[in-house]
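Work Package 4 report. The design task specified in the project plan requires that, given a folded chain encoded as structure tokens, an amino acid be chosen for each position. We show below one input record used in the internal validation round.
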């Protein structure tokens, strides 16, 4: 059990119930306490509560009024009434209003245990049954939507739902994917599909369902009797959902008039042009044009179905074009951005434009990084060819046309050492080769590897190698003689 709410104005009783609940065999993740019905109602509106224990007599809002108010919240908890003998008749009467059980004061630990075990088992059983029912419904819907033939498996599944819909017409509703659905009654099934929530519900229940769940931007099919018509109902609900998405209506019921609506020009070639301009100076012009498309579709001047297709094309083509360029952690920016997951066009538009800009900035950053890498590679090649000249970081950064500070940071990031140490390592390594393979004087070698001052060269060589250039040459000669002798 996730949560238990205890509503009792007497602190000692409230704390006692909480302690007994904590020590019972049912594992409860969170126990919340409050003093009256008003506080409890605020909690119930803010978060989902599994079970609520409530006293009857309390200041500000008593338990009777609280139970009535719970009828208006989305996810009503299982309610247990706590009453004294004088209030017993009230408790019995409240059982008629959805209360599961009652506890008489003084509260006993074994009674708390008994009720919590019973409610926890009932809730688990209900959750499992909902999973089974929705699993069957998902299988049925996938079959209906993907197959034109109704095979034996379809007939078997249809029988399962016949009790719910044989005598009652039903509708298919499509909700934004971001919505939470609370529909704990027999004649409702739902599943997540293509980033949206699909609901099948009795015709007489759908208005109450929308009101209770405070749902907006919903597409609703016409009413049907045969479950085999679910395919047509789904398609109607989908089209109605798109109209609700673009018009920002609370809900849209499908009618033949939806199909007869005429629109202005289409979007032929727009996605390709948009993607081609994405990394150019014309990008902002196309972003403005896309915003104009959103506006036109909202006001019935452009085909909303085609616009959704164009949005998907833009996202797919951007990733197809730039997946190999952009860093892996930023590749999913647009991939999973389903327009119909959002409530309406205004919410999606803001998010989509923001994500496009993030993607664009990521490409720009990647481009700059790649450009910097190319310049550093060019700088390294220049150093290797010109280490014997009077080189410093200012000379090399100017050679590759790069800001001095940026060059310094980029060079160390790429090479693993700073510029000075990198140049020193190349010069000293070259000096070692000359000491080993030539008879040149130390002064000549110093000059050949870029050091005009012999003493400076000798100091740097000894600090780097631990011995002087002369000692290094002597060691190399001894080593060569020893190897020749072998």
């Amino acid at each position: 059990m996730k949560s238990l709410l205890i509503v009792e104005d007497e602190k000692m009783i409230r704390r006692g119930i909480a302690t007994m609940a904590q020590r019972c065999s049912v594992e409860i993740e969170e126990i919340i306490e409050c003093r009256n019905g008003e506080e409890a109602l605020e909690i119930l509106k803010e978060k989902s509560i599994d079970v609520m224990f409530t006293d009857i007599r309390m200041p500000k809002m008593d338990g009777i009024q609280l139970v009535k108010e719970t009828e208006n919240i989305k996810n009503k908890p299982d309610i247990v009434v706590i009453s004294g003998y004088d209030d017993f008749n009230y408790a019995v009467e409240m059982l008629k209003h959805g209360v599961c059980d009652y506890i008489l004061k003084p509260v006993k630990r074994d009674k708390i245990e008994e009720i919590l075990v019973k409610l926890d088992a009932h809730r688990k059983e209900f959750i499992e049954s909902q999973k089974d029912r929705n699993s069957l419904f998902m299988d049925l819907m996938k079959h209906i939507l993907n197959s034109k033939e109704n095979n034996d498996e379809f007939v078997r599944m249809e029988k399962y739902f016949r009790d719910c819909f044989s005598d009652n017409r039903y509708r298919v509703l499509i909700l934004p994917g971001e919505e939470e659905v609370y529909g704990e009654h027999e004649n409702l099934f739902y599943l997540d599909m293509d980033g949206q929530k699909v609901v099948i519900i009795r015709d007489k229940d759908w208005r109450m369902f929308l009101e209770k769940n405070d749902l907006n931007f919903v597409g609703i099919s016409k009413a049907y009797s045969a479950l085999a018509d679910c395919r047509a109902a789904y398609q109607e609900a989908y089209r109605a959902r798109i109209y609700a998405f673009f018009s920002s209506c609370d809900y849209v019921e499908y009618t033949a008039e939806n199909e007869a609506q005429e629109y202005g020009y289409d979007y032929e070639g727009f996605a390709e042009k948009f993607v081609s301009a994405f990394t150019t100076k014309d990008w902002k012009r196309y972003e403005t044009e896309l915003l104009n498309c959103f506006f036109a579709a909202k006001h019935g001047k452009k085909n909303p179905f085609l616009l959704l297709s164009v949005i998907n094309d833009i996202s797919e083509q951007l990733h197809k074009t730039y997946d190999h360029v952009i860093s892996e952690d930023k590749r999913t920016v647009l991939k999973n951005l389903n327009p119909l997951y959002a409530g309406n066009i205004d919410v999606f538009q803001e998010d989509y434009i923001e994500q496009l800009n993030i993607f664009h900035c990521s490409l720009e950053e990647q481009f700059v990084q790649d450009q910097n890498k190319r310049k550093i590679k060019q700088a390294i090649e220049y150093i290797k060819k010109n280490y014997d000249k009077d080189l410093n970081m200012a000379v090399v950064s100017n050679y590759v046309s790069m800001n001095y500070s940026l060059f310094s940071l980029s060079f160390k990031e790429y090479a693993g050492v700073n510029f000075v140490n990198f140049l020193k390592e190349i010069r000293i390594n070259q000096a070692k080769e000359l000491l080993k393979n030539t008879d040149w004087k130390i002064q000549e070698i110093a000059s050949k590897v870029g050091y005009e001052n012999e003493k400076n060269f000798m100091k740097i060589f000894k600090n780097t190698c631990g011995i002087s250039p002369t000692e290094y040459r002597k060691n190399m000669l001894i080593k060569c003689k020893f190897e020749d002798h072998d």
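The mean pLDDT is 81. Validation will be extended to a larger panel in the next phase.
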